[in-house]
Design goal:
The chain is mainly alpha-helical. It contains 14 helices and 2 strands, in the order H-H-H-H-H-H-H-H-E-E-H-H-H-H-H-H.
């Protein structure tokens, strides 16, 4: 972790929290006793569990809806499923440890703090997941731009196969960009605590890389370049939508219906893109400002540490909201997603009712079969008794028995095989 800049998890997982900034060892940080410091701790303590719960439930519901049959036919659904998965990984690798630490009075120690492998894997997935989320959003923005500007070629250019290849290539490139954590990060002795270790920068030979190069590489991959491409893509999409609305009267009804279908998915994209810009811009500006301060002054002035802590806490909560609120944005901006969500819950209820109906139908059929057997037995006994009494009768009684037999046949209930209550 860079000692001269704020990073995602540069707050130690203890009740008394300190930034990884250049503070003299002889001077004990007192920011926790300031008003801004207390507010910062309250933000981490109460806001982070809510964001974590909302993000976990929302992303799981998003995956369930996007994997349904009617949603899988859109190539955009593949992008959004992977976006939800990467958001889940980032919430559980980055925010979960803070939730546990701030929600309990005891110090939270996990495999990240005690094993080299855990430390390296934690760093890799924390950064990889946030980078991958940003670039999945870039990929889906480009795909929607092609769908809006070239609707007749979208099936050839944006098939599910091509989307999978694109996401695979993006994953390979981002893996290469974050692979250095497996040799630059590790367990080291805590600088201001005896007999304690932290997961941090593991070698002095990498300090130049961490301090001068990695903050800008991270900001470019996470925010600056994705932000530029997303804004450009959405500007092109909005321009095309406005142009299409002017020409709507000239379009046929079939083309209008197709255009409305595209607009439904496009509205979801614009919604999550705006949400991404709003939630990630503050932390990017904050990191840029902190890097500027550290470059020119060497450290954060002591009297401003509490204010920087509060600003960092608010910006990080907004950052994690980007990984948590996509489900709500889908529901608000995507009519197709909203309808499919309702259908999914209705199907669960319908399946339960169908099972209950099947049980009642089966029970009713069994009762009808028993009643049929009882009726047949009664009629058979009646015919047997009638035959013994009329064995000495005349032709008139024979005609009467034939008439009675026809009436009995007419009154006999249908065979279970032909019964409408039979479950085949």
């Amino acid at each position: 972790m860079n000692e001269t800049s704020f990073q995602y998890d540069n707050i130690k997982q203890h009740k008394n929290l300190t930034f990884n900034i250049n503070v003299n060892a002889t001077h004990k940080p007192t920011w926790t006793s300031t008003e801004n410091g207390k507010i910062a701790i309250a933000v981490w303590k109460y806001a982070s569990p809510c964001i974590f719960a909302l993000g976990t439930i929302g992303n799981l519901l998003s995956i369930a809806v996007l994997l349904r049959k009617r949603m899988r036919k859109f190539s955009t659904s593949l992008f959004l499923v992977l976006l939800a998965l990467s958001d889940l990984v980032h919430l559980h690798s980055g925010l979960l440890r803070s939730v546990i630490s701030y929600s309990t009075n005891a110090t939270y120690v996990s495999h990240v703090e005690v094993t080299q492998a855990g430390c390296k894997v934690h760093y890799f997935f924390t950064y990889f997941s946030v980078h991958y989320s940003a670039w999945v959003l870039v990929a889906v923005s480009v795909e929607r731009t092609i769908a809006v500007w070239m609707p007749f070629r979208v099936k050839q250019l944006c098939s599910r196969k091509s989307s999978a290849i694109t996401l695979f290539i993006v994953g390979i490139l981002l893996t290469a960009a974050n692979l250095h954590f497996f040799w630059t990060a590790g367990i080291i002795p805590a600088p201001r605590k005896r007999n304690s270790t932290i997961c941090n920068l593991s070698g002095n030979q990498y300090k130049v890389f961490w301090r001068q190069y990695w903050p800008w590489i991270d900001a470019t991959l996470r925010s600056y370049l994705p932000f530029t491409l997303i804004v450009l893509s959405n500007s092109l999409i909005i321009a095309k939508i406005l142009q299409t609305r002017r020409q709507r009267k000239l379009l046929t009804s079939r083309t209008c219906n197709h255009s409305n279908g595209i607009t439904s998915m496009t509205a979801m994209l614009i919604g999550i893109s705006i949400g991404y810009i709003i939630t990630t811009s503050p932390i990017s500006v904050f990191f840029a400002y902190v890097n500027y301060i550290m470059y020119h002054h060497g450290k954060i002035p002591d009297q401003f540490v509490g204010s920087f802590q509060l600003a960092y806490a608010v910006c990080m909560m907004l950052h994690y909201c980007n990984n948590a609120v996509n489900f709500l944005l889908y529901c608000v901006t995507g009519p197709r997603f909203r309808k499919e969500l309702i259908v999914m819950f209705c199907c669960l209820r319908t399946s339960t009712l169908q099972y209950k109906g099947y049980y009642l139908k089966k029970t009713s059929y069994a009762s009808n079969v028993d009643a049929t057997k009882t009726t047949r037995y009664s009629l058979s006994s009646s015919r047997s008794n009638g035959g013994s009494r009329t064995s000495r009768g005349s032709a008139k009684n024979n005609n009467s028995r034939q008439s009675q037999s026809r009436n009995q046949t007419y009154l006999s209930p249908p065979s279970p095989r032909n019964s409408p209550m039979t479950i085949r």
